[in-house]
Amino acid sequence: MICHVRGCRMERRNSMSEKRRDNKNRILRNGESQNADGRYVYKYYDILHKPHFLYSWRLESTDKLPAGRRKDLSLREKIREVQKDLFDGIDSQGGTMTVLELVRKYIATKTGVKKTTKAGYKTVVNILSKEAFGTIPIKKIRHSDAKLFLIKLQKEDKRSYSSIHSIRGVLRPAFAMAVEDDYIRKNPFDFELVKVIVNDSVIREAITRAQQRKFLTFIKEDKHYSRYYDGMFILFHTGLRISEFVGLTLGDLDMEHKTIRIDHQLQRGSDGIKYIESTKTTAGTRVLPMEDEVYKCFKRVIEKRKAPATEPVIDGYSGFLFLDKDGRPMVAMHWEKYFQHSVEKYNRIYKDELPKITPHVCRHTYCSNKARSGMNPKTLQYLMGHSEISITMNTYTHLGLEDAWEELQRIQLQTSQNELGLRVIKTA
């Protein structure tokens, strides 16, 4: 019996001595090992039984880092992270792809997007290709890293708020995809941008009714710019996007019923090639009524339009209303220049200068004027082609104290008239 017990003790000692140990005589656990150079290794298998390896110069977090080695998590800290990921179903290997690789993967899933969107994707890829941030594994990106990257773009690279907003507009859904794919746990770009960087965007203010009248009167009477009067008047009184405006064809106008069909827009790429795109949103596809003066403008445009020798055709569309001197469809840039140069001429002549006016200012002005007139917000949303009422009310309507006073006086007058009417009825 004693011999038997002694034999058991001996076997236990032998098995303990046979356990693998590191160079500090510490017992190594299953999967752990130490190379001849002192570096620790951990071998594990993912859910597909594919082998992977973790490396570190330290076994425990309390170990001293060997001289000349970069600070890193200890092996057992890394093991705990991997084990937690495996338990939660997180693909830790997927998390090793870089930010740039993730963005490229995300872009690959976005098929059927507009050319303008593709151009935006290309811009983001070009930026990340040059930035150290693009080389970092996505699992290592924290909220603070994402914020510091965007701050760097604004402060050091001098990129505008709108540009950074567009960049974040690609990064955030890309990281959201990584979360959905179980590569990472949280989206590091899920935060309010305005709380991180300064919104230095220039607000496109609507001009006043008086300024609009002065400008259009000047255009109408000017020997040179009067040729653009009808187009400018239409922009001020329809709220059309400039891409929708230049995309108008003869077939889009129903002069009998006084309506304008909006179902496409004309764009020009960075390569100078013109192309047709669908409206900005599904809400952008709409039929607009022509006000009397707008109808008269369109009628003159049609009458003055000189049919070119060969009608230009772009993606199946022809009969464009606004053609340049060479008989080619005008694009946004043409009208932007017309507005710029005409305002400059006005300001050279008159002391009471006009602010900057662009086709988009026309759109803002139209929306604000209709809001001031008391138009139903949902009707205004439809006319503007907005997908959400918040865009209509918060972005495009510029109302102030003067407008508030006018509205209060209008309501007060209406209330007084109603009360007077009730008295008349009672007296009768």
CATH architecture of the largest domain: Orthogonal Bundle
Helix-strand string? HEEEHHHHHHHHEEEEEHHHHHH
* CATH domain class name of the largest domain: Mainly Alpha
Largest pleated sheet: 3 strands, antiparallel
**Poorly predicted spans:** 1-17
Strand residue content: 5-15%
- Cα separation of the termini: 125 Å
Fraction of residues in helices?
40-55%
| Strand segment tally | 8
Radius of gyration: 34 Å
Number of helices in the DSSP assignment = 15
Mean pLDDT: 87
The CATH topology of the largest domain comes to hpI Integrase, Chain A
The secondary structure category is mainly alpha
How would you name the CATH homologous superfamily of the largest domain? Intergrase catalytic core
Identify the strand order in the major beta sheet: 1-2-3
* Large-scale geometry: elongated
Overall tally of domains: 3
Give the helices and strands, then pairings.
Layout: H1 2-18, E1 32-34, E2 40-45, E3 51-56, H2 75-88, H3 99-109, H4 115-130, H5 143-155, H6 161-180, H7 209-221, H8 229-238, H9 242-246, E4 253-254, E5 259-262, E6 265-268, E7 274-277, E8 286-289, H10 292-304, H11 332-349, H12 359-372, H13 377-384, H14 389-395, H15 401-427
Antiparallel strand pairs: 1-2, 2-3, 4-5, 5-8, 6-7
Helix pairs in contact: 3-4, 3-6, 7-8, 8-10, 8-12, 13-14
